[in-house]
Design brief:
By secondary structure, the protein is mainly alpha-helical. It contains eight helices and six strands. The chain has two domains: 45 residues, no CATH class; 100 residues, no CATH class. The strands form three sheets. A two-stranded parallel sheet has the order 1-2. The chain has a two-stranded antiparallel ribbon with strand order 3-4. The chain has a two-stranded antiparallel ribbon with strand order 5-6.
């Protein structure tokens, strides 16, 4: 607490105790957590936590830790579904909005390959569209669409190339 008080005095920034927390190893005594809570007024948290939008975990990354990212992408697409967009408009939205959303998270955390495939599938389904609640036929693979326009693609990136 002395170190935090020094930080507050030197930098002029106050520590928000309501947003601050501490973490302990699972084998730590419960009394240790109680003493820390009394001294600091911080809350105890368990892993996984999210910091700056990135899941922080112990052990290997799990699919469930990236559910917020998938939900953000799906929610963004849901807002656009009602609009009549050309393939060029969809390609622009995919390249400049949807593929930029996960860059921070994917550069900070290594997601399972299943997540990358799922995101890529969601983007492909959005690009090709839906008819009567069924996916339309995908006329070309996402690997072919990654090429520039002059080479027969639309310039989208593979999710493996993003992270």
């Amino acid at each position: 607490m002395h170190t935090l008080a020094t930080y507050e005095r030197v930098f002029g920034q106050l520590i928000n105790k309501g947003k601050s927390h501490f973490m302990l190893h699972s084998n730590a005594f419960r009394t240790t957590g109680d003493r820390i809570r009394k001294l600091t007024d911080f809350h105890k948290k368990e892993v996984p936590i999210t910091y700056l939008g990135c899941p922080i975990t112990t052990g290997r990354q799990k699919i469930i830790h990236f559910s917020d990212l998938i939900n953000k992408i799906v929610n963004k697409i849901t807002g656009w579904q009602s609009k009549i967009l050309s393939y060029g408009g969809k390609a622009t939205l995919i390249k400049h909005v949807l593929q930029s959303m996960p860059i921070h998270i994917l550069s900070a955390a290594s997601p399972p390959s299943t997540i990358l495939k799922q995101i890529q599938g969601i983007l492909a389904d959005f690009f090709w569209g839906w008819r009567n609640d069924k996916k339309k036929y995908h006329w070309s693979s996402w690997k072919n669409l990654r090429f520039p326009y002059d080479e027969g693609g639309i310039g989208v990136r593979l999710m493996n190339d993003v992270c």
